[in-house]
Amino acid sequence: MDKQIEIKNGTVMPMIPTRDLVVFPGMSVNFDVGREMSVQSLQNARNDFSGDVFLCAQKDVNVESPEKSDMYKVGTVANIRQVIKSPGGVCRCMVRGVRKAKLVDMIVHDDCYEAVIKPMPNYSKDKLYAHELDAVEREVRKAFEEYSQLMPKMPQEIYNAVMGSKSAEDLFEAVAFNVPLAFNDRQSLLESPSAGEKLVLLMTILAREIDVLSLERDIHEQVQNQIEDNQREYYIREQIKALQNELGEGSLDGSDEGEIQRYYEKITEMQASDEIKEKLNEEVKRLSRMAGSSAEAVVIRGYLDTVLGLPWGVYTKDTTDIKKAQNVLDKDHYGLKRVKERILENLAVRQLTPDIKGQIICLVGPPGVGKTSVAKSVARALDKKFVRVSLGGVRDESDIRGHRKTYIGAMPGRIINGMKIAGSSNPVMLLDEIDKMSNDFRGDPSAAMLEVLDSEQNNAFRDHYLEVPYDLSDVLFITTANTLDTVAGPLRDRMEIIELSSYTREEKFNIAKKHLLKKQLEKHGLTSSMMRITNDGLYMLIDGYTREAGVRTLERNIGSLCRKAAKEIIEKDVSKVTFSAKNIPDYLGHIKFLDDDADKEDRVGYVNGMAWTSVGGVLLPLEVLVMDGKGALELTGSLGDVMKESARIAVSYCRSIADEYGIQKDFHEKKDLHIHAPEGAVPKDGPSAGVTMITALVSALSGIKVRGDLAMTGEITLTGRVLPIGGLREKTMAAYKAGMKTVVVPEKNRGDLDEVEDIVKENVEFVFAKTIDDVLRAALVKPPQAEVMPEMMPEVLPVKRRGRARKTV
After folding, report:
1. What does DSSP say about strands 531-533 and 577-579: parallel, antiparallel, or unpaired?
2. Which positions are catalytic?
3. 370 marked as binding residue
4. Fold type of domain 322-496
5. 193, 377, 435, 477: most buried, per Cβ within 10 A?
6. pLDDT (tens digit, 9 = 90+) per residue, 376-395?
7. What is the pTM of this model?
8. Is 367 within any annotated ligand binding site?
């Protein structure tokens, strides 16, 4: 080694960390070098160190960039005999171990490894006496002989070398170099100092390997015997079948003949087409020719049981009494007029045309409004079987169509499984959360649903497991979804969409009083004589403790009051507990949601708008402040892009009508305008705040007050036309709750008044506006005067905080 560096603690030389490889001194071995730093170390050894390199094994083969702590303490200095470069930068090299060495330190350079090593003797002096060493050698030879008998294809040359070895060192090398041992065992043998200690450790390792090989041989013999027994049974069965065929006594022994006959009888009795019966008869014939315990026989038997378990031609008799169905629907649900009307229309058409098919209804609405429970009520109203299939999280097409029966663990899809559970060919099948399906590399389940929900195709739906057509045309499919945005267009086209909007305050009150309270009383073991919630208490729960589209949180709060009543009845031995608006905060804590703070005072530059949120309607006041400046327009309150555009339209329109309301014509040059929507942390967007912005701007610029008991909504155009808006039902309920006396809505929304609650129409005056002039005429307190100059808006009262639902105006 012409360039080895001698230092105080040892010698520095190139190093290659090896994975799953231990090289003994005197041993020749081939291995691949693939890591770039190891390849460079190999090149340095060939160029500068006469081909000598230090090989040391890693403790963990998964470490890509090892350090000293990742390496064993003992390795081998080897001489490189041959290097062959292969494509990809991997080098195939052959080395021969020279001597054992201890790793003192590991130097990790940017491109290679070096090691500080201390040479060690390959074999230190033995502590064993000569006769002890002879005994160890004999035991090793005996263990190797037993190992050779268990190890298949042991070369005779290796056996002769072991048995003919003259010394302990020769015996160790003959065994350790040629017997496949575990990586950690080879490292332990390398680290052992003397030949005697190496042989003792080797004897222990061979004993363990002998135990493992013996166990493997026993298992192999058991498997082989089992295969032979199965083959013997198969041959005997085949001989029995041949003899029975000759005697004309059938094709199976008595134990299976009854099963096959039962399958034939069931196929004959089922109300299916000849094509399906022929397919099933062929499967039974195949089963009759197989051994009963074979894997394929088990698959066919499961297939036949599944197909014959389906309700072929089994129908329940539907009700034809519309009044009875309406009573059931009204009893189970308050409101939901459109849904109930659609079901009753369906029932009326069925009376006229009993064979009508292709009915797929999709109920769309926010969580908690009763979509799933409506489907159950429909089944009760029609006297049909009901089955629910959850589609939430389904992302595999085979969940809908099933798996091929050739696969292990195959089963039919959810639709066919639902039919089997229903036990009827005309049930009500609820496909819950159809908008929660997703797709991946296993297919698109929504594409598989197309055939299920297409009335032109589902009379011959083919499940992959069944392999025969099944008629789904008599099933009344009801699907539910929270939103249609994630439902594929072709799938949406096959369904009749019925939207369920959020419940109004009055609807929640009636639902709680007629349904939720009774349900929770029964659930908690109470009666109406033991606990009572007053009407004002229910309104307190609805307004102060819930802010939701449905009634789930309301039901949980009622349940909480039931538990507190039960506790009070038991602890204080009272006979009845009454909850009202006064004492509910004592039980449920402080009020979580405050009502809209409607300012009833006539104000300048302050207008009550209305907004729709996912949990109902709310008031959306708008404030405008006019200041001396250079015509800047400031918009605050987390306004979206659409509302910002409405503000610019409002400013432009105010410039066009400045003369009519005594507004300075050059206000857009000399006045700064600040438009603010309170509750700045709540995002707001939508076009229907247009009339509110124009009214607030005209009021602030002209100094004319706006009625405090009036709320408004509507989109505007540059020419002053008022366009229709959505969510009128929820918005008007919010105005009624806030005590508004008059509501201004677009003329084109007059038809939507049918959906507005009766209590709102009885207590609120509606003004239908075609143009912004109609809005201003109703909202401004006194007629315009040309002499009126703009004035500063009065101080705005603080607005109470409400829930964080996003507002859409």
Report:
1. parallel
2. 688, 731
3. yes
4. Rossmann fold (3.40.50)
5. 477
6. 888 888 888 888 888 887 87
7. 0.56
8. yes
